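User: Assemble these into one structure.

Assistant: Restating your components, then the assembled model:
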Amino acid sequence: MAVSEQPRGPKLASWLYGKLFHNYIWRSIFRSGYPSTPRNQMLVVATNVFLHLHPTRIHKTHVRITHTYCLGGITFFFFLGLTVTGVMLMFYYVPSPERAFSDVAALETNIRFGMLMRNLHRWMAHGMVISVFLHMMRVFYTGSYKAPREFNWLVGVILLTLTLALSFTGYLLPWDQLSIWAVTVGMNMAGSVPLMGEQSRFILLGGFEVGDAALIRFYTLHVIGLPLLAAIFMAVHFWRIRRDGGLARPL
Amino acid sequence: MAAGARTVSSTQGGARPRREREQELLVWPDLVFVEFIAAVVFTLAFIILSTILDAPLLNEANLDITPNPSKAAWYLASFQELLLHMHPALGGVIAPTFAIIILFMIPYIDRSNAGQGVWFGTPNAVKIALFSAAFASVFTVGLILYDAGRHVNVVTNVAQRVDKDWEWPGALAPFQNMRAIQTGWEWGVPVPKSAQLGPGEHDGVLNWPEDFSHVPMPFNGTSGPDWMRWDKPDSLPGWVQSLYWYDLNMNTPAFIVELFIPMAIMIGLPALLIFILRRLGWVETIRDGSIAIFTGMLVVYFILTIIASGFRGAGQDLVLPWDVPHID
Ligand code: HEM
């Protein structure tokens, strides 16, 4: 593993390289030079907060697509995409029974790229539910939940339920016939809990039927409560992957 | 450098073998590149998808107009399907809760290291997964068809070719569908009047289902001899009262149809699956067993989802996908 600072190349390239990656400002941001040498490639991962989710080196089998199919990563990608498009939708959406439906309808007619944002948010939400299921299947069928990763599997199951809850709460927000009746069906299931069914249904809905109290509850959970929880559990999930010694492989 | 070296040493759990450097790649560029490409591909794919396909928006919500059928979101539709076949508490709450608990428990039950880190790592894993998938599909579809009474239609159709007046025999009345045990089946046995238990009219015949639909539970406050009865505890707060039903009576036919049979099926079929796989000699470790159960659960979920979202029409009747009414 050669450790050298300068890439080989023609004069112009090294001059450019020097100007771009050896100056005071670049150094103040990234600490290491451009990741063109093994040393800098490791430093860039180790010193960058986002890339630091990764170790600096990983085992060969784990970059093979067919080992993970990138499914956990894709789930995370969907989560990020949903956050971005979701924030944009929040600019235009007011969670009240009087406005919710017309605000969503206006995305199509009055707002440039409004429909694109809404579509992206909807399809990515479906995509995330599918990819989290597939990710769980890949973890299961590769036997990657075994010691020392039992706890990370638990965190994963929590993330699965959070993903479903996010999707479920989001379903109500357009306030159309599909949303309100899907949520009514779901809430009636909650209402059949033995002993405290009626109470839990009442607490979730803030009333006896799906109305304005339910809308504001679902909205709050959907835009802050559940995403915050999911982000926390994802942080634990990723941290544990590294603490457990990277991805599972045969002993 | 220091940061890199620290992570390497601190992830050594003792049990793990020493890292072989030549087996390892640098995350930048090898992994970061793959991640970057995946992100670009998915971003583009979803932007294209979103320009072509619009998210649905129906009429404004109105609780006075019930769409028929009204359906849950697809990832919950499987539990809505369960509701059609069993008590709502069992299908909508208890079964999903147990499914989650079973998921939680997998790594704590299967503690062996067999097959770790490789796809289908045990010798029979693929066979077990395929067999369990087939087993789960056949029984799920079969039970749904049975509960819709489709076997009655088929048998009647065939039999009526031979004998035009053929009808489903009364002796087989409880086997028209699950609910028929409660609603489609009647019989009575004479019982001497002297065998009277408790108060009430006694007509000399013990009838199914009427005489079984209000069986007082022991210690429920309203049954048994006088000294076993007690007054409704009105002075206690409501939630305390709800912990024990004062006048608890069992509707035996409903209990059998809505709770007993579904539970027996949901426990019995997985047990049967494991039994068969052990007989075949395929299941050797707990890992093998958990592959069977996990696959079975997954396939049941999958099939229920398809049936609930694609094959349930008005009134939740079992219909073909093109006969499902369009809701707006
Ligand atoms: C929001 C949901 C989730 C996100 C964003 C997520 C993300 C990830 C990522 C990025 C990885 C790295 C490897 C890979 O891409 O496959 C991973 C690994 C893992 N995930 Fe998840 N995951 C989620 C849900 C789940 C679920 C539902 C389970 C299981 C029930 C789970 C269990 C695991 C385990 C045990 C590992 C370690 C795998 C190994 O060592 O090979 N995760 N997760």
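Chain A has two domains: 2-53, 68-243.
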